[in-house]
Here is the input.
Amino acid sequence: MSRFDFSPDGLARTVTPFETFVSRRSLLRATAALPLLGWAARWAHAAPTLPDFLQPPYAYPEGTTIAKTDAFPLPPGQPQRTMVERVAASHNNFYEFLPGKGGFVYPLTEGFRVQPWKVEVGGECHQPATFDLDAIAGLGLEERLYAFRCVERWAMNVPWLGVPLAKLLARVEPTSNAKFVRFVSAEKPAQMPGLRATREEFPWPYHEAIRIDEAMNPLAFLATGMYGHPLLKQNGAPVRMVLPWKYGYKGAKSIVKIELTRAQPPTFWGVAPYAHEYGFLSNVNPNIPHPRWDQDRSYWLGTHPKEIFPTPIFNGYGKWVAKLYPDEPRTMQKPLREGQVAR
Here is the structure.
């Protein structure tokens, strides 16, 4: 059994101050609890020290301010606490580094460089533009505590920093032809070992998409940070999407391009043999089982034994998004079979 405190009381109270992580006792406890898994052991030179593990890869410009908002409180159906950062940073799904499973991604990101970084925004818009990290921060950073739900059933609440996606899109002035928004992640095989290992298996680069009305919803959030600092590499640095009412894979990480389109774009998981498992909408819905597991229960990441709670529809954010989906299933559906297309 791990010596790490995986009890609900030990892991899931409030955000732990960063300074407490760098003490010798915290270092020994955390490194003992984070063994390398599978692919990580194959590529990592050594387990990271705790300060490196939680060290942001860059800093916000001097004078950057962050506005805290309580406009989007945690939904009643979610645990009412913030995930401890060391847990949120130690279990990640990021196939560009760790393909085939979720786990301890950090050791594989050593060669990944996030500066300089630019995000190209174009397509069906009047004023296409390219934003660097300072320009995105200049739009006005907010901190939002959002519930997060992975399709693999684990959940956490994370204080993200970033800007509403609608604010960024307003700068490029979408045309009336813009019906969808496509996100493309970085593809850097020399820096991302998972790409080298799976170049024939997956349709790289990672790409996702949402409807324009979803993109303009006030919940849609372009995140550049977490826990009061810029994003960690393993959590999608330096820019990622956060859509709290959808499963986590809809939030593309390490974004380099945002494109407004007329037609619905293909998505990374929306092709055979995965199309019956991962749909275009992919709203969190306990009534739509995954072909390999039910979705009516969620568990709080890092708890042992697992702290389980009922999965709320739209991850609890129906107040803000339910009107976008008048036909969202409200009764239990049958699992799909290969050859069918998920919602």
Summary: The longest strand covers residues 154-164. The mean pLDDT is 88. The chain has one domain: 8-324.
